[in-house]
Every structure is written in C-alpha cells, then in structure tokens.
Amino acid sequence: MRLILLGPPGAGKGTQAQRLVQRHGIVQLSTGDMLRAAVAAQTPTGLIAKDIMANGGLVPDEVVVSIIADRIEQDDARNGFILDGFPRTVPQAEALDALLKKKKLKLDAVIELRVNESALLARVEKRVTEMLERGESVRADDTPEVLSKRLANYREQTEPLVHHYSDKRKLITIDGMMPIEEVTAEIERVLAAVTKADEAAQAAKRKVASKRAAKPARAAKPAKAAKSKVKAKAKTKAKAKRTVKKAAKKAVAKKTARKAVGKAAKKVSRGSKKATKASAKARSGTRRTAAKAAAGRGRKAAKKVAKRPSKAANRLTKRR
Ligand code: ADP
C-alpha cells in the first residue's frame, strides 16, 4: 500500500503514520525526519536545510524530491510506504506522480487530516511540554512564531494539493479533530473500502481480459507497412494513366495542327497560282489594269494566309 498523509503541522500525521506502519507493515517516509537527520549529520543537504527549517521555510523542491526518489528505491519500501510531509508543493506532487509512473507504482490514497487552525498552536505547545518532560530535545521550529510561518506556508503551498489529488480521485478527508483512536479507526475504515473497491476493479479487469482471450481471433488487419505499399502502388498507377492521357491528347493536337498547316499551305499555293495567271494575262496586253489588280489581290490573299495559318495551327504553337 502506498499512501500520502496530508495536513498542517500538528494535525497528527506523525502519530497516525506510526499506527499505519504497525498495521500494514509498510515504512513511514517523513521528509521532516530525514532532513533533521541530515542537519544533525551535517551532510551537504543538511547544511542547505538547516536555516530554512529553523525559520519555518520550505527546503527547495529538488532537494526533497531527490531524497524521496532515492528512498523509495530501497528494499524496505518495496511493500509500500506512507509519505509524511511530502509532497508539500504542487511541483513536488508532480515530480512524485512522474516518479511513480516511471516505476509503474500505484498510489492508493491521499489521507488529508483536517483540523481547526485555532487548535494547532495548543497541540504544538502540548507536544513541546511532553518532549521536555521526556528529556528530549525540542525542535527548533516548534515556537509560536515559527509555527505561524509553517502554517502560512501550508495554506499557500500545500493546501492546493487537496485539489491536485481530489482531481485524481485519490483524496480522502478525515476529521483530524477527533480523538487519536477515532481518527485511526476512521482511516482504517476508509482504507478497507479503498482496498475493496480496488479488488473489485481488478477482478472486473481480469474478467474483461479473459472474455477477450476467449473470443476467436479476428483476421489480422493488414500491417501498416503493407497498407502503405498498396497506397503507393495505386498512386503510381494513377500517375501512369494521367501520362498516357496527356500523350494521346498531344498526339491528336499535333495531327490537327499538321492538317491545318497543310490546308494553309494549299491556300497559299492557290493564291500564288492566281497571281501568276493574272500576270500572264497582263503580259498578253489585254485588260492590263484588271489583271494587275487581280494579281495584287492574289498576292495579298497568299500573304494573309501565310501570316495566319489557321486557328488549329495557332493552338499548336501555344501548347508548344
Ligand atoms: P511539520 O510538523 O511542520 O509538518 P515536518 O517535520 O514535516 O514538520 O517538517 C519540518 C520542516 O522540514 C518543515 O517546516 C520544512 O522546513 C522541512 N520540510 C519537511 N518536508 C518538506 C518538504 N516536503 N518540502 C520542503 N520542506 C520540507
């Protein structure tokens, strides 16, 4: 089981996380604890985090994300884990989503412990007194001033995660103002419901899968490569058809043009014959003027025809 505990400082995340560890045999991964250990050991991460934590600020996202990425890789987290204090910002949540997706791990639920802010200061004060009584060292950030800063950070940066996870249908909100035992019982009740719903969904999936497997296999569709080969063949065929049509049209046009040129040439020769005849007449001396005029007309006609071969001949020239 993989869970996230969400809630402001003093909401009771740590207490409930320990109970879940015992009941479900999973590990509690608290970024707060890990960072405090890093500060105590003075590791490079600890040196970055020390002052930020003491002032109630948030340690940079990349630092905590890399801590968690390493931690969930470890053997003891294989059975599942409870994230306590992480994610605390939307980018952290998105990084976690990506991390789980990459590892093909499913998040079961996000449990939000909702509490009245007015009760939180009293709770933290009580915690400080109890720690002092046990002779334990008190956290540097458990002072009223720093607590109000931590609360403001929660409201601004962490509360938007409520929407992030309710959009993903992972959010379970529990009244954190109830006595500890009742909060635990309520968490167990909802987790049992989540597990049951999950099992039902898995069973339904298996049923669909086995039904599908029982159906006779349909004729395989032609593979993509084969399909594209067929398409390419059809394209080549169509192109060849178009080329043949074009060539035929050109041949017809050429023939028509040749005919037209022939006709025009005939007209030209007829015209010049007329002219020759007329000039012969003129040479014979009779009706000289009329003969000259006829010859002139003949020559003109010949020129005209030669200049303007015919419409068909024109078309051919244009096409060329
Ligand atoms: P709280 O009781 O306020 O929830 P935690 O023990 O979870 O406190 O964390 C203590 C401090 O550690 C935080 O105030 C913050 O400075 C730092 N911290 C812990 N978890 C994160 C996180 N996920 N992102 C950034 N800072 C964190």
Word description of this protein:
The protein is α/β, with parallel strands linked by helices. The protein has twelve helices and five strands. It has helices at residues 13-24, 31-41, 44-54, 61-71, 90-102, 117-133, 144-158, 161-167, 180-214, 224-283, 288-307, 311-319, and strands at residues 2-6, 27-30, 81-84, 109-114, 171-175. The chain has a five-stranded parallel sheet with strand order 2-3-1-4-5, sandwiched between helices. The chain is elongated, with a radius of gyration of 48 Å. Residues 278-291 and 316-320 have low confidence and may be disordered. It binds adenosine-5'-diphosphate. Adenosine-5'-diphosphate (ADP) binds at residues 9, 31-32, 35, 52-53, 56-59, 64, 85-86, 88, 92, 141, 150.
Secondary-structure blueprint of this entry?
Blueprint (H helix, E strand, L loop, with lengths): L1 E5 L6 H12 L2 E4 H11 L2 H11 L6 H11 L9 E4 L5 H13 L6 E6 L2 H17 L10 H15 L2 H7 L3 E5 L4 H35 L9 H60 L4 H20 L3 H9 L1
Helix pairs in contact: 2-3, 4-5, 6-7, 10-11, 10-12
The chain binds adenosine-5'-diphosphate.
Structural class: alpha/beta
Give the helix tally.
12
How helical, in percent, are the residues? 55-70%
Tell me the major beta sheet: 5 strands, parallel
Brief synopsis:
With 320 residues, the protein is α/β, with parallel strands linked by helices. It is 69% helix and 8% strand.
